[in-house]
Write a structure and sequence with these properties.
Layout: H1 5-20, E1 26-30, H2 34-46, E2 50-54, H3 57-66, E3 71-74, H4 83-92, E4 99-103, H5 108-116, E5 121-124, H6 128-141
Parallel strand pairs: 1-2, 1-3, 3-4, 4-5
Helix pairs in contact: 1-6, 3-4
Length: 151
């Protein structure tokens, strides 16, 4: 599936509008794989978003005490505080920040477990970069992408 220019343009337009209002769009990337964090950091910057990088859920929880983020991209299997513990902590704090779980586990029962734990969405790692503009459109801008199917 190829991303449409309209979707990428929408992300750029909304980010530009928010920047004009002195509101930077920040997205937390929570993953213990430094290579994936670096790739996501570059991609998010290219989309005009301010990436904030965390090694694990504990770092994310500390970060959220210091600054807001518009979206969390969360791995599940991490040291210190894994993704499920992080989802539990966010739920206890009644966080309204959308969380997209990014994982290699494609099992449908696993997907349901993640959504039941409070995640807004679930993306397989091999599909993440293809789906990233749509995820930003849906969860950061609040607008539905024009194409059919889920983000």
């Amino acid at each position: 599936m190829t991303l449409g220019q309209d979707e990428s343009a929408l992300v750029f337009r909304v980010v530009e509008d928010r920047t004009t209002l002195n509101r930077t769009v920040s997205v937390a990337v929570v993953d213990d794989d430094p290579r994936l964090r670096t790739l996501l950091e570059e991609e998010l910057k290219d989309l005009g978003v301010d990436p904030v990088l965390c090694d694990n859920g504990a770092e994310l929880m500390a970060l959220l005490q210091q600054r807001p983020v518009a979206l969390i991209l969360l791995d599940l299997m991490m040291p210190v505080m894994d993704g499920f513990a992080c989802l539990d902590a966010l739920r206890e704090q009644r966080s309204s920040i959308p969380v997209v779980v990014v994982t290699a586990h494609g099992d449908s029962s696993y997907r349901q477990r993640v959504l039941d734990a409070g995640a807004s969405d679930y993306v397989l790692k091999p599909q993440l970069f293809e789906r990233l503009p749509r995820l930003l459109t849906r969860y950061v801008t609040g607008e539905q992408p024009r194409s059919s199917g889920s983000a």
